[in-house]
Amino acid sequence: MEKRPPTTPAASGPLKGVRVLDLTSVVLGPVATQILGDYGADVIKVEPIEGDLMRANGVSRHAGMSSIFLAINRNKRSLAVDLKSAEGRQILLELAADADVFVHNMRVPAIERLGLGYDALRAVRPDIVYCAATGFGQDGPDRAKPAFDDIIQAASGVAGLMWQSTGTADYVPTLMADKTTGIVVVNAVLAALFHRERTGNGQYVEVPMLETMVEFTMVEHMGGLAFDPPTAPAGYGRVVSGGRKPAPTSDGYIAMLPYSPQQWLALFRRVGREDLAGAYDLSDWHKLNASVRELYRELHSLTPTRSTAEWVAICEELDIPATQIWRIDDLPEHPHLKAVGMFQPMDHPSEGALRTTRPATLFGATPAQIRSGAPLLGQHSNEILGELGYAGDRIDRLLSAGVVKDAASRR
To answer: For the whole model, what pTM was predicted?
Structure first.
C-alpha cells in the first residue's frame, strides 16, 4: 500500500512532528488536544459517525458546527469512523501504529469493550503515550460512574464553597472542571513525552477529573485540615467569607485589591480617611489577615463615593491592583486584549467570517499557531485513509458500508 502524505498546513510549534490520536469528545478532552494542536502536533480527531455531541451545543450558523465546537477543535483533522465495527477498529489500530500520543475521555470499561485499551494500543506501538482522562480514579469505587463538569464541581467542593460563601449551593458559571482537567492532561502528556524522549519508553497516564479538581481546590482551602489532627475548619477565610467580592462604585463595580499593610494605609490616607488608617493595627501581615473582614467592609463603604474610573486612577497612582469589571460581551474591546491581538478574525471554509481567541502561550523560537479551523465531521476521512495506504475503491467501499463518513461526499 502506498501511503500518501498529509495535505494540511505545516506546523511550526514545539510539537511539530508529534502525532496525536484524539478519541475525546465534549469539552475536557478537546480542550487538551486543541492545545497540543496549537503547539504543532498533528491531531487526528476520531469521531463516531454521528459526530462529537458538542457539535450541537452552543450557537450555530449551520448544524454540526456550534460556537463551542469551533472554540475547542481547531488545528485538528476529523476522521468519522464506526469503532464498533471490526474494520473501524482496525483503522484505529493502524493509525495508532504511527501515533505518538493517544488520548481518550471515555469510561474505561467502554473503551476496553471496543478493544482499544492500553494493552491493545501498546501491542501496535510499544512506546505510545496513552492518556485516559477519566471522571474518577480507577482505583476507587466511583471509577465507572459518568462524570460531567457539574458533577465534578459538586463532588470536588467547588459548589460547596459557593454554598459556604453565598448561602446557596451553586456552580461556577464556566466549565471549570472540564477546562482545568484538560490543561492538566496537556501537562501530563508533555511530561510523558519528555520521559519517552529520555528513555524511549511510553506509558499509561491517567488524569481523573475528581482528584484533579480536589487538588486544585484545596490549594488555598486546606486550612486547618493541613494539620493532623485538624486545628480549624477547611477554607481560606479571605476568599470564602472575608468580603472578597467586587466593590460597588457610583457607576458600577470595581475589582481592587489593596494587598499589603502599606497599601491599605496608603489608600485610607489618599482618600482622606486618616481615622481608618489609625483604627487598625497594620504593622505586619499577620495583623492584616486578622482584620481582613473588617477592612473589606470599610472598603465597600468607601467605593460608592467615587466612579469606577476615579478608583482605577487612584489605585494606579498607589500601585494597587485594580480593574473595572468586564462583561464577556465587551472583552474584544479590552485595551490590553486588543493590543496583544487576543481575539483574531479568521475565515472558516463552511462557517465564513469568525472571531477566535489565539493561543495564549508564546514561544520565542517555535510559535504556536492557528493553522486550520475546526473540521467538518469526517472532513479528512479520505485524506487520513489515504495516508494509511488505502486505495480509492477500498475507501469507497468503507464509505458505502457506513464504516467511515466523509464530509465532502456526504456519505
So the answer is: 0.94
